[in-house]
Amino acid sequence: MFTRLNKIYHEFPRLFWVVVIVSFIDRIGGTLLFPFFALYITQKFGVGMTQAGILLGISSLFGLIGSTIGGALTDKFGRKQLILFGLVFSAISMLTFGSVDNLSALYPLMVVVGLLSSVAHPAHDAMIADILPEKQRQEGFGILRVVGNLSWIIGPTIGGFVANINFFYLFVIDAVVSCVVAVIIFRSIPETKPEAHEHEESESLWQTVVGYRVVIRDVAFMAFMVAGMLMLIVYQQMYGTLSVYLRDSHGINPSGYGFLMTTSAITVVLFQFWVSRLIKFRPPFLMMAFGTIFYMIGFALFGVVTVYVLFALNIVIITIGEMIVVPTSQALAANFAPETMRGRYMAIFGLSWAIPSTIGPGAAGYILDNYNPNLLWYIGGALCALSVLAYYALHLRLGARQQFAPAQKEGQPLPAASD
Fold it and tell me: Hey, which of 284, 388, 395, 411 has its CA 20 to 30 A from 367?
């Protein structure tokens, strides 16, 4: 095991590992607070989940706008400046959140925080795409997923202990972590934005924003986005709707749901390296279809099984798909983008997550409240099946292009280029 990890370490550039370590520290801070934010709102202000959900929805809605702006700014001004801005703003906003005593003040605060906190998101993905060559991006994003899941194992455990003492300390710790990460990035990570080619004219900010037309007119990329949204509107139910369904339909308490989420995180930590190494030699759109099949099976079975052990098995099935789909989709999105437009492509790619997270919970809640709750999971399985077909169609249409070719094992000839 140690030999394999040592080999992986030496295969990637040092700068990538600096980014990985920084990402881990930053996510520890985020996972200290995020799982308890709704609990904080409902407890401090004495409101129900409906109002807490509205506040979180406002943040997500304005996050769509912020991410879109951030993609253009990333391509215009670079990655590092946007990331540093995001971290400093995060520290200030967290301290502000912890200090607010009036519920009405949270609404405009959510608008501002949702808008500005998302500005740096495309810069993070663009930086990884800058650092890693195409053949390593899929595996690189997989490594970041392992780091993210490690933080989910550690952060909420510490956060729960701190929250029992004082919720405000969670905001303070997250702010301190953001400042520490900002200092490390400022001192240790250079700007990674590719330099403009000689004699190439610099775009104005307006031209950079207008460049989104190129992304939107990329029919293949937009088809990839639609396929992803079909699947993600189902996948995201695992992190909200599922807990309510398990409690109301099967009497499973929050701690039982929490164990299911821990099972998912541990599965990723144990097997993501191996899965990433295995799938990088296979056609990426086929891998997206294959991974989504696991989503289709796992989510549809929630409407069938009734035993806790089988719910845990469903989570493992979904997590297998997740280990295939998430890093592959991130690498594909980066490979679609010309190097001068990575920020804008990654910003639009972020909408494939943000749009489902905006409309998915409300739609799922309507089904749970008005119909047989199992219908939600049958519809989810059907949507995943449509996504599988869409990814397979993309494989047939785009799979031969050089930019989407899988990594080659040593000694294998490179595939012929294709338009």
Answer: 388
